[in-house]
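Friendly challenge for the regulars: who can give me the structure tokens for this chain first? No prize, just bragging rights.
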Amino acid sequence: MPVAGLGSPVHLPQPAPPHGRAPLACRLAAVAPGTWLVEPAPRPAPVRVKPEPVAHVRIVPPVLPDSEPQEIVVTGSKRDIPISAYPGGVQIVDGDSLSAADAGRGNDILEARVASVASTHLGPGRNKLFIRGIADSSFVGPTQATVGQYWGNSRITYSAPDPSLRLYDVQRIEVLEGPQGTLYGAGSLGGVVRVVPHAPDLETAGGSAWGGVQAIQHGQPGVDGGAILNVPIVDGKLGFRALGFGAIDGGYIDDVERGLRDVNQVRTYGGRAALRYEPGDDWTFDLSGVGQWIKGDDSQYAERDSGGDGLSRASSIAQPYRNDYWLIDLVARKQWGTLDLTSSLGYARQYVFEQFEGAPLADPLDPTVAPVAVAIPSAAYVQTDRISMVTAETRLSRRGPDGTGWLVGLSLLHNEARVNRWMQTEMFGVPLTGISNKVDEATLYGEGTVEPIARVTLTAGGRLTHSRLSGYSQDALLTVAYRVDPDASAERSETRLLPSAAIAWRANDALTLFARYQQGFRPGGIAVRREFVQRFKGDRVGTTDIGARYDDGRFSLSLSASWTEWKNIQADLIDGFGFPTTANIGDGRVLAVGAAARWRPLPGLSFDAALYLNDSKVTSYSEATLTLITLPANNLVTVGGVPPVADGQPAKSFAPNYDRLPNVADTTGRLGFAYTTSLGSRLDLDVNGFARYVGKSTLGIGQILGQLQGDYLDTGLELRVGTPRRGISLSATNLLDSRGNRFALGSPFLIRDRNQITPLQPRSIRLGFDLAF
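First reply, four minutes later:
Bragging rights claimed.
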């Protein structure tokens, strides 16, 4: 399905072949619309493909039955390894296959396309991504995200929510499954999502535009639109590319207490600009900037007890939120045949504002036992997060035949996150303890692959990281903030060595088998527990996975299984007062099994199916965490490690499902189809659809957050009629008008007393257009 204004057909990188050998070619095999697995194919002669003009909007399917296959590489490997030789789980989503409706959903569409990816659903700009069941909580605290997110060569976030960047005008999206500690280091416990935007075309001027209107059943209408412009400034040497977009997503949640309808409208505006300069001698310089602003009028949750068919709640105040995001990066690249030198510098800044209803106002000076306060109806808990990050990396790599080669690199990172909190009533505001965390990392890493015997490659690597951590409290008396943990503000350092090893065997041109072991870690930091500052330690994962990929041109199948051991799990929790906090909850393990298949019975027609199973468990809890996640019978809670008392006895029993890791469904399944045919007179018809089942999981760890969520069916259908340069599209989501309960929460202060759910957006229909010029 073509994208309004998403540029030219995808042309994947063509690395220079090593002397005397042709590059390994592969077949693309669609396992879902826009999601491709790639297998070995007959070797074509290496051909340098010249990009087509930017104005060409209609995306030709990458592989037709009689087309000549191209070499496909995993650019996220940082040395362009052919996917048939890549010893790990990887999914590649062709960005040019995303429609304007798809691209406007941000990473929600990635979750729908790739079965191993999961997300929370607090709202755009407030969510967290997870891969392969490595999930810690439903909301964002000072912990680093478990998924490393990258925009080109630059990191998008560190200890911040997913900014939900709209995926317009992107070339491809790569999902590297499992820890990526060797190449990406901290924050890649579950894997890496790397978005590669379209670069400026240095030879052809042009552009495109798109727009649409959306009708939401039980809600307000929405509208979206945008445009792309590409201008060569100096032919063949200097080019400029710009994108601007905006969208209003209609609300569909009613507030019965305030007498308001459709309160959760979301407005999103943003843009990108990029300059590319190629002075010659195989040098390339890219300077780009990304900005996006999200403003939600109210929270996305409902309450089952408020009526309204699962789309209503009773709130005394509005609960708005914002996410402002900026990224600037500069990349320089030099190639000498098979050698590649890349150096990048990036600066990211993010501002997040959130307001919740019903926070209790209790005495912050009693660190032992206090009754749970009754929420003041007009009270609001307000939190602002300001995160800034500077990253720099230089790496040198060599590409050899069949995935062999080596890579060495040096990276530096500085991240500062500041959280301010306060209680706001109609009469006055009360500042609460805030925190500031700083992390400085210096890393040396390397990886190499050899082929000891024909069709077998061995890979080994390591990453040595030195982290310096510091943190301190804000807006509170030090005698109060550090009463529980006087050393919480001290600086400290950590040095970690992360090894990796893998093997891949290409049994024949259709079948590849692989096995892999890799580690990942996150450094520690400080967090607030009610009014008290406490430290949390770094955590670490080690994952072993095995897999197989098969493709004979008509039928393809991929299988994978992974086992993960997770030590000192960092998790964002809710204490007995409803305040968010962070702690090391203990150790855990995750078993994940996945399968994806695609069948093409006729030219232009394909079917896909995927199944992903996840089994997770917290195998042991820390003593400090038992006092935090256990709710005693008499509703007494603690601060500072004093065990809660219920009828004179410590309360340490757990109900079923409280020991599983949160937010990742035990079962995820998908069925889909894609069909393309000609209607004559240069008109084409493209149709695709899917049905996706999301199984059960929990909101978080412990009795307060241990409620079941999930268990819903999501559906979608889209069709387009038009020429390669003009088209009209009709798309529908949630065809069955399901409610479901996605992995999120409303107000953490009311979660014990109210049956909160986060429903799917009701049945929606979008009518859109796209054009190129």
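The radius of gyration is 26 Å. Confidence is low (pLDDT under 50) at residues 1-25, 42-69, 362-376, 631-656. Your move, everyone else.
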